[in-house]
Design goal:
This protein is an alpha/beta fold. The chain has 3 domains: about 100 residues, Probable tRNA modification gtpase trme, domain 1 (Gyrase A, domain 2); about 120 residues, Up-down Bundle (Four Helix Bundle (Hemerythrin (Met), subunit A)); about 160 residues, P-loop containing nucleotide triphosphate hydrolases (Rossmann fold, 3-Layer(aba) Sandwich), CATH 3.40.50. The strands form 2 sheets. The chain has a 6-stranded mixed beta sheet. A 6-stranded mixed beta sheet has the order 8-9-7-10-11-12, sandwiched between helices. Strand 8 and strand 9 form a beta hairpin. Helix 4 runs antiparallel to helix 5, helix 6 packs antiparallel against helix 7 and helix 13 packs antiparallel against helix 14. The radius of gyration is 29 Å and the shape is flat.
Length: about 450
Amino acid sequence: MTVYALSSGPGISGVAVIRISGVKTEEIILAMTNGNLPAVRRATLRKIINPKNGQLIDEGLVILFKNPNSYTGEDMAELHVHGSKAVVQEILNVLEDFSDCRLAEAGEFTKLAFQNNKINLLKAESIGDLIASETELQRKQALRIMSGESSNKFNFWREEIIKILADIEAKIDFPEEEIPEKLSQSIKSKCEKIRNEIKSTLDDNKTGEIIREGFKIAIVGPPNVGKSSLINYLSKREVAIVSEKAGTTRDVIETHLDLEGIPVIISDTAGIRSSSDEIEKMGIKLAIKRAEDADLIIVLLDPENVDFKGFFNEKLKDKSILAINKSDLGIDNLKNYDFKVTPYFISIKNDSNVKKLVDAIKSKLKKQFLKTDNILITRSRHRLHLKECYKHLEIFLEKKNNQEFDLAAEDLRLAIRHLGTIVGKVDVEEILGSIFENFCIGK
């Protein structure tokens, strides 16, 4: 089967790129260029025609790639044409008329690259992350994974465990021979080293996943202290309704932002107070839950509402920033007030000290999450299999004698399998759909 798709963005553009991949690629290019096939891997200007009637569709660049030296590992071509909707649609209509040729599914070109051993599973995922990246931090993380940093480490652990398994299976093949004590200690020592490295990798505060999805920030506080004004200020647009009437916000309002290179998801929540209104009470419950689940909490008060207990207990203190809004109304009465954490006095209305609050948010996130660039886990799938690998290594290390080593081989095989699943070294067909379904068509 040969597949095709528009790989550049939809809509009017200067140039549109249409990709074709599969066994009929060369036949299709011959037909659409009137037998004028370009040289391999050389951008060549060609008239692109409808082979059914010989009518000219457009004039553009044609690039031909021969397998296995292409992105997908198959014969592949790219048509660089004018980005007119009419031109693109006509070319897609022509491609549809070829037998055994269909529109590519989302992520199918990258899926073919994986299946043809051009890339591993981690690189395939990181390509999707790079396409979806919205901030500098997300871009850098995706590129780091694409470079092979994670896959090299996972493959190294896998190969080391395979070597350990080989020593164990040698004993199983020759049961009459005892594993020498020196070899037995060496096996355990190597396994402990790998286990400890995996444990260190898992103890990363889930930073890779958080960067990929965005840091969750919840704005909480009493009604009418400026929570909606703050989310509008940070978003630089009207995300939430601002009203002097208390209790305007009933639901959680969420927006994704690029906070000077850091991806964040900021939530404006209902004002927390005692209320007899059932809908408002539901909103308050959601606000408290959102605060508990957040990576960072901005507790926003004003000079008239500074007694806000419950958000500075030990559980929430370390991930909270306190800001006192409406400081332009006067804060002299707060000089001796016993705040549990150091507050930032701001005025959203007058744009006073809000930049300091933004700097404090960035500093808090960096201090709490961005302590190292050595991030190997960027998806929950990776973490799940790495945890399972760690568990089986722990079980293996509990074996006390040579007889138990017979059973330990299976623990090592399972550990190897889980590492292999991360990078795609074992059958992973069941997870391919979930990985590629979020890709754009044409990639």
